[in-house]
Amino acid sequence: MTENPLKRMTDKPADARRDDRPADGVPRGPGAESPPVAEPTTPRPPLPPRPDQTAPETVSPTGRPTEAEPTARAQAGPYLTTAQGNRLYDTDHSLKAGDRGPVLLQDHHLREKITHFDHERIPERVVHARGAAAHGVFQGYGTAASVTRAAFLQRDVETPVFVRFSTVLGSRGSADTVRDTRGFATKFYTSEGTFDLVGNNIPVFFIQDAVKFPDVIHAGKPHPDREIPQAQSAHDTFWDFVTLHTEATHHTLWNMSDRGIPRSFRMMEGFGVHTFRLVTAEGVTTLVKFHWKPRLGVHSLVWEEAQLIGGMDPDFHRRDLADAIEAGAYPQWELGIQTFPDTPEQTFEGIDLLDPTKIVPEELAPVQPIGLLTLNANPTNFFAETEQVAFHPGHLVPGIDVTDDPLLAGRLFSYLDTQISRLGGPNFAQIPVNRPHAPVNDMLRDGMHQTAVHTGVAPYRPNSLDGGCPFLAGADTHAYVETPVPVPEARKVRGAPESFADHFGQPRLFWLSMSPVEREHIVAAYTFELGKCYEQAVKERALRVLANIDPELCEQVAAGLGLPAPEATAPLFAADASPALSQVGRTWPLDGRVIGVVTDGTSDLDGVRTVCEALHTAGMVPLVIAPTGGKLDPEGEPITVQRTFATARSVEYDAVLLAGAPEPAADAYGARDAKAGEPGTDGAVDPRVLLMLNEAFRHGKVIGGWAGAQRALQSAGIPVDAPGVVTADTGSSALDRITRLLPEHRVWKRFRSRV
Ligand code: HDE
């Protein structure tokens, strides 16, 4: 496993996690020579219920101890056992008739072990199959108290949460950095029952009606004949659908923007997408849209980086999240709401709030912070938690209600339905990660994988045989009471309101809100994706769609495809810009930024030590790169090499710092003899260092160096006075100068179009 570079941000020793294991990693039982080891791992259940909260089985006592943890079910005691608890003396050999004889059918251990293995996999999610998750806590600010009675949103209330991030199209084993929408699903284990906010990192959706969901997903998934391409929208069926079905234009434009390739889950916004209805104890309602705002700002990769990482480290986002949490650099988001009066029209400034292809610009309705999410613990077991977690937009709590958005209505059906086949039956709420932390006392009975042992004889209402239990609650005792909103008088139709018909106004708003460099990226993304299509008719139709967003966008993509740019078929919308939509132009904290410190045999190691220490102090992460692995200065104060010229690639870090030399060295970063590690004969700079510098330069990363680093920069053809390139006499001053450039995330001026 790759070392966690963020790890050194804490004082925790590298192997502290496993220090309860014997050195050889073999757990031994009582009587063995080594001291006994209680557990080979240290499983942790999802955040424990509060003392006044109980899991389903504990409210259905069996007469046996009821507070069993999952560990007690699967990993108790020092000895290896069968699933029935029989201790085993050998698990390496099948039972045979003699050493060379046939295996016997009576070997129940062999059959149990293989049978269980045969059934280890469950169906992956039909969408959002690839994901990573973390536990955390949500703290209400109390600022939403005037618009909702929801207990978890009241001031200083702390609620355990589990958050799963995902891509949409790819299979479970696909790469993290593909161009796609990201899921951002949060399970709040509140005192009033579970609330799930199942959102995305893009605030609009491809379709306005759930009945189209199978269409858009069938179009986006790999072609059914060859099952290619994996986790990509760059293919004919996707573009065929989204150009015929123009309500997808807005979401597609966001996907083609930098939002489609986030730098990190920690640096993504999240959106509830639909409009929800908040309700006070007095029954006063307010329409809202939910937003998650990352403390580290919204950042993206550039497309070439995303593609390289897909091969170099397909687990890039998953690793980044787990490493940050393990190192104590807990990611945080503020939950915010945009609020709108709950009028019969359900519109705001002319925007239909029931149309999930529309945003309300933040300039018209500012996002008001209502709480803070902190992710502070990695899952203990990927399958048990991340894979088995089951979200559902219908998991609501008193004070939060749905609206009649037709997309949301379909989702309210789909999520429960899909869990039944994915998790093998209707009892998935009993899986530890899905258990509410509020007491559960339902009348649901039996079914596949039932683990509660219910008592009583009357799981029906009304009853007298169980003393009339359980009782019904009222609004004053935290019952979930649907808001009695009036339903408009209407006739049954298969149709949509006229206000859903505009498919180009908001895409134009988005395009006009982008900085030049962001527009350049959008043009490149459309050109790449459409360039991967085979069907000429699809490309031409896509250009006709772009012409209705903006002529410049259309012309530039057409030029890249070598096709004529068509005229718009409708007048262009007179949209204003919404500056809040652009990612460029603001500055953000540097926590967790990764700085590649490139060294070689000639380097000023005191300077390297100083720089690494200063980076740690500033909450950043140095990654020491050298020609070969091991330690630098093993006789003195050794510096661990974390990447070699063979394993490092600039896509892993946010800036590059070339260590200088104490004396001017003619062969600094010179190519070495692979075996001896000695300087090569021609004195040329190592091509792997040149590749690193060229890529970092192309991707708009800050590049710095000290005392003698200029030689490598010159060899790479990088002007020392280019934007975002800094050199200095000492490591400290070089670091100081790059640190001042990093809050903007990238050197935007270096891109062709400039900011
Ligand atoms: Fe989902 N979606 N979705 N979706 N969705 C699922 O539920 C569905 C939509 C979202 O980490 C599935 O448990 C329909 C919008 C996330 O486990 C499934 C429609 C938004 C996740 C499903 C939508 C989302 C899912 C697949 C159109 C953003 C991953 C597995 C009406 C607001 C949750 C599962 C996780 C997962 C159905 C549209 C977000 C099949 C029918 C809009 C983040 O039930």
From TrEMBL:
Keywords attached to this entry: Heme, Hydrogen peroxide, Iron, Metal-binding, Oxidoreductase, Peroxidase
Cofactor: heme
Ranges annotated as biased composition (Low complexity): 24-41
Region span, Disordered: 1-85
One Gene Ontology molecular-function label: catalase activity
Spans traversing the lipid bilayer: none
Segments of skewed composition (Pro residues): 42-51
Claim: Heme is one of the keywords in the record: yes
InterPro entries documented for this protein: Catalase (IPR018028), Catalase_AS (IPR024708), Catalase_clade2 (IPR024712), Catalase_clade2_helical (IPR043156), Catalase_core (IPR011614), Catalase_haem_BS (IPR002226), Catalase_immune_responsive (IPR010582), Catalase_large_C (IPR041399)
The UniProt record lists the keyword Zinc: no
Listed Basic and acidic residues bias regions: 1-23
Catalase core domain boundaries: 81-469
Its EC number(s): 1.11.1.6
Catalytic activity: 2 H2O2 = O2 + 2 H2O
Family: Belongs to the catalase family. HPII subfamily.
Reported function: Decomposes hydrogen peroxide into water and oxygen; serves to protect cells from the toxic effects of hydrogen peroxide.
Name of this chain's protein: Catalase
Native source species: Streptomyces yaanensis
Lineage: Bacteria, Bacillati, Actinomycetota, Actinomycetes, Kitasatosporales
